[in-house]
């Protein structure tokens, strides 16, 4: 939710920042802007040059064309609007102190209206509708009071409520950038004689692999050669250095027209990398475990909390965990969880699933769970993000950076991770013997290959997507593990193609939704395995017959060789046979491809769907 970049060093800051913004654009694309500190004359004085434009970075590029913006210190922002419409006026950076300083912000300043009213009462004039602008004026006021730049930001942060990453430049401190972090991401890139700031490491991966993670309520002051981290009261603290272990190619399109299409193809590797190293002997190992074995053994109830696509992998976690451990599992949308006062105690395990590790709803659910003394296990794709930091145990998915806003490879990686968590709990509870764990793990380890084969079977799905692109809606049906896959298929289609799409358990259809079926309506059906779930398979055939009789155009995803499905389907999409619990690894693939094709045929940008951003750091 908003991407942020900062730079101090020998390079032209504008180039570094605009490039960094392109990599951050997945976080928001309502507007983009930069502020560069440009030296004037020889006396060390400087001015701020600000350029900003509503819309995507191409619009900013046009705005910058023909302008001569030089300088080696600067900041940039790409916005997902919260307060104030997505127009030029509300685009970041915002300036204060009559153009002395510029600020970019990710998050929400919850007490901004009180602060704004106070500033206005002292004669400050606002030029935007954003919450961010109060920060610009507050920092400027503190500088006017004689504070240094770091001190001015610290004093300002002490007045702010809410979530924020703030990055500030000041023409009076031309070789410095300061930044603050509370409940919103910020990482520091440490180069040779240059420093970078970014919402994530992709902002500067081209230049350095050395990074430092900031903790909560911390301020960083960077110059080209050094950084200093303090808390909001000015007490020095240590940052947490780490090395970036993926390369630039992972954050580039590599010949694909869209990141999403590349990321779909990367799913075998995402699953293989997520599984790698987690079976040692016959034991499943998590990445971080601050819980002792007894605490895991004592777990008698599990809640899975997550949002969007991660919620769908959470629904699948329920099948795995309950099947292997017989511990009851509830799966809940993180945005609802804490507001209904769930029953939690020391023996409850909350599994929080989040690709970004910074989704505000999920983070708050984690905090609520911990307040109630429950244990938290995070599944996350972002090393060191806030959710894993605040959890008792962590299993990282290793899908690499996912730039396309719609989750694809991180979903597959989460499918692997929830299986591992199920096995780890079964092992802790003693409901599975070591050799059974090894057998289940080996079945999982076959999934990358099964996904690769599936990807090679999708030619007709591309054609079919284009064929049904003008439909007014699409329904998705599934049973058992096919139901979360149906939900995920519907979500992908909604977000990518802006089409009405709903996922239902097939058995639920006759209780109402069947009224939606009309002549020619495409209905995607995820077929259970004829051998693995024969009863459900039969029932699904009946469901297909019911909707076919009412005019539906059925698109049936079924195991290769399922002849009955072939007879019933208007279109059959075959996928390789897998053990029942693992079928979502392969049945999800045609959903992703179908949605992408439909969206492309409708002229949509599948990497940056309208109104969305990759990570949602506001509730
Ligand atoms: C859908 C999608 C979103 C995210 C959701 C949670 O394609 O990407 O629904 O799954 O916003 O995000 P994370 O996993 O970062 O918590």
Please render the helix and strand layout as text.
Blueprint: E1 3-8, H1 13-24, E2 31-40, E3 45-54, H2 57-64, E4 73-79, E5 94-96, E6 101-109, H3 112-121, H4 133-144, H5 149-159, E7 162-170, E8 177-182, E9 187-190, E10 195-198, E11 210-213, E12 218-222, E13 227-231, E14 240-243, H6 259-265, H7 267-275, E15 279-280, E16 283-284, E17 288-289, H8 293-297, E18 301-306, H9 308-325, E19 329-333, H10 334-337, E20 348-354, H11 360-371, E21 375-380, H12 386-389, E22 393-396, H13 409-429, H14 434-445, H15 447-455, H16 459-467, E23 473-478, H17 482-497, E24 500-505, E25 522-526, H18 534-549, E26 553-559, H19 563-568, E27 571-575, H20 584-601
Parallel strand pairs: 18-19, 18-20, 20-21, 21-22, 23-24, 23-25, 25-26, 26-27
Antiparallel strand pairs: 1-4, 1-10, 2-3, 2-4, 5-6, 6-7, 7-8, 8-12, 9-10, 9-11, 11-14, 12-13, 15-16, 17-22
Helix pairs in contact: 4-5, 7-13, 7-15, 9-13, 9-17, 13-14, 15-20, 16-20, 17-20
This protein binds fructose -6-phosphate.
Fructose -6-phosphate binds at residues 307-310, 354-356, 359, 362, 406-407, 491, 495, 615-616.
């Amino acid at each position: 939710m908003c991407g942020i970049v900062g730079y101090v060093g020998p390079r032209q800051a504008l180039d570094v920042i605009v490039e960094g913004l392109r990599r951050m654009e997945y976080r928001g694309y309502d507007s983009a802007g930069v502020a560069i500190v440009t030296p004037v004359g020889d006396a060390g004085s400087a001015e701020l040059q600000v350029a900003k434009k509503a819309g995507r970075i191409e619009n900013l590029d046009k705005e910058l064309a023909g302008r001569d913006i030089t300088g080696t210190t600067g900041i940039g922002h790409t916005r997902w609007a919260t307060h104030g419409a997505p127009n030029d006026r509300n685009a970041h950076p915002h300036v204060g102190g009559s153009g002395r300083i510029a600020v970019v912000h990710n998050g929400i300043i919850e007490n901004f209206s009180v602060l704004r009213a106070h500033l206005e009462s002292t004669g400050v004039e606002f030029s935007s509708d954003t919450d961010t602008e109060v920060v610009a004026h507050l920092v400027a006021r503190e500088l006017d009071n004689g504070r240094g730049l770091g001190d001015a930001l610290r004093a300002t942060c002490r007045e702010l409520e809410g979530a924020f990453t703030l990055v500030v430049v000041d023409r009076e401190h031309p070789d410095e950038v300061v930044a603050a972090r509370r409940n919103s991401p910020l990482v520091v890139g440490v180069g040779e004689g240059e420093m970078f700031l970014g919402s994530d490491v992709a902002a500067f991966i081209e230049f350095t692999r050395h990074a430092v993670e900031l903790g909560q309520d911390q301020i960083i002051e960077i110059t080209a050669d050094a950084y200093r981290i303090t808390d909001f009261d000015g007490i020095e603290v240590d940052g947490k250095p780490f090395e970036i272990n993926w390369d630039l190619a992972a954050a580039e399109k590599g010949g694909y027209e869209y990141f999403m299409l590349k990321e779909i193809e990367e799913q075998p590797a995402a699953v293989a990398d997520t599984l790698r190293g987690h079976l040692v002997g016959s034991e499943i190992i998590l990445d971080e475990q601050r819980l002792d074995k007894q605490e895991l053994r004592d777990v008698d109830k599990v809640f899975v909390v997550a949002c969007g696509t991660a919620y769908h992998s959470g629904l699948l976690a329920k099948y795995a965990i309950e099947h292997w451990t017989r511990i009851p599992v509830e799966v809940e949308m993180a945005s609802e969880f804490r507001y209904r006062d769930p029953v939690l105690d020391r023996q409850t395990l909350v599994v929080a699933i989040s690709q970004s590790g910074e989704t505000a709803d999920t983070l708050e659910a984690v905090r609520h769970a911990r307040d109630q003394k429950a244990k938290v296990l995070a599944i996350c794709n972002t090393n060191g993000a806030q959710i894993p930091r605040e959890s008792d145990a962590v299993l990282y998915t290793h899908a690499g950076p996912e730039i396309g806003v719609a989750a694809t490879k991180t979903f597959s990686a989460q499918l692997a991770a929830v299986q591992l968590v199920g096995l780890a709990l079964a092992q802790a509870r003693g409901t599975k013997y070591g050799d059974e764990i090894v057998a289940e793990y080996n079945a999982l380890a076959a999934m990358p290959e099964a996904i690769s084969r599936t990807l090679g079977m999708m030619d007709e799905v591309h054609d079919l997507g284009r064929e049904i692109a003008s439909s007014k809606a699409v329904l998705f049906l599934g049973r058992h593990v096919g139901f979360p896959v149906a939900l995920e298929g519907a979500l992908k289609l909604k977000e990518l193609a802006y089409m009405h799409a709903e996922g239902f358990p097939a058995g639920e259809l006759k209780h109402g939704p069947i009224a939606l079926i009309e002549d020619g309506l495409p209905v995607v059906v995820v077929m259970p395995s004829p051998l693995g779930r024969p009863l459900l398979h039969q029932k699904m055939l009946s469901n297909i017959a019911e909707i076919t009789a009412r005019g539906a155009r059925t698109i049936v995803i079924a195991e290769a060789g399922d002849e009955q499905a072939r007879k019933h389907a208007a279109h059959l999409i075959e996928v390789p046979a897998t053990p029942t619990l693992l079928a979502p690894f392969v049945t999800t693939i045609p959903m992703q491809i179908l949605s992408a094709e439909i969206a492309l045929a409708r002229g949509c940008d599948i990497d940056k769907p309208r109104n969305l951003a990759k990570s949602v750091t506001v509730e």
